[in-house]
UniProtKB/TrEMBL annotation:
Its main location: plastid. It comes from Teesdalia nudicaulis. It comes from the Eukaryota. One of its GO terms (biological process) is translation. This is Large ribosomal subunit protein uL22c. The gene is rpl22. InterPro entries: Ribosomal_uL22, Ribosomal_uL22_bac/chlpt-type, Ribosomal_uL22_bac/org-type, Ribosomal_uL22_CS, Ribosomal_uL22_sf. It is found in: Plastid, Chloroplast.
Length: 163
């Protein structure tokens, strides 16, 4: 088996959260909103989102910024979330006792979240700086022309047709 050596990046810092007790699907819904944004903007978004999974992700972003300022002396105003990924973790399986001696399984899903912050002050001197920021903010979907039609079932008589 060939192992690749990781290149040492001088402009990026990461924080890793493992075995967080939420499903990977719900965590991806939150992480997709902050990917490619600045550090301060991501904290504001995470504070105002109404989901329960925002708090562990908020702590991870905050921890990654603390790693950046402590370990590499980066300024927090120059940090951008360059990579944020959510992987599925182990599923904790339990049995809940029920009536008549039966039991039902309970499955608690976990996930692993990786947040990578990058210092953009290094890229500001180059002309590709704006292109790099647009590269980080990838569009989620390409279907922009979607026609949605809603039918009112009460006024059309479709549901309550019979008397």
């Amino acid at each position: 088996m060939i192992k690749k050596k990781k290149k040492k990046s001088y402009t990026s810092v990461y924080a890793l959260g493992q075995y967080l007790s939420m499903s990977a699907h719900k965590a991806r819904r939150i992480v997709d909103q902050i990917r490619g944004r600045s550090y301060e903007e991501a904290l504001m978004i995470l504070e105002l989102m109404p989901y329960r999974g925002c708090y562990p992700i908020f702590k991870l972003v905050y921890s990654a910024a603390a790693n950046a300022s402590h370990n590499k002396d980066f300024k927090e105003t120059n940090l951008v979330i360059s990579k944020a990924e959510v992987n599925q973790g182990n599923t904790v399986k339990k049995l809940k006792p029920r009536a008549r001696g039966r039991s039902y399984p309970i499955k608690r899903s976990t996930c692993h979240i990786t947040i990578v912050l990058e210092d953009i002050s290094f890229y500001e001197q180059y002309e590709e700086y704006e292109e790099y920021l647009m590269y980080l903010k990838k569009p989620v979907s390409s279907n922009k022309n979607i026609n949605l039609t809603c039918y009112d079932t009460y006024s059309s008589g479709g549901l309550w047709d019979k008397k």
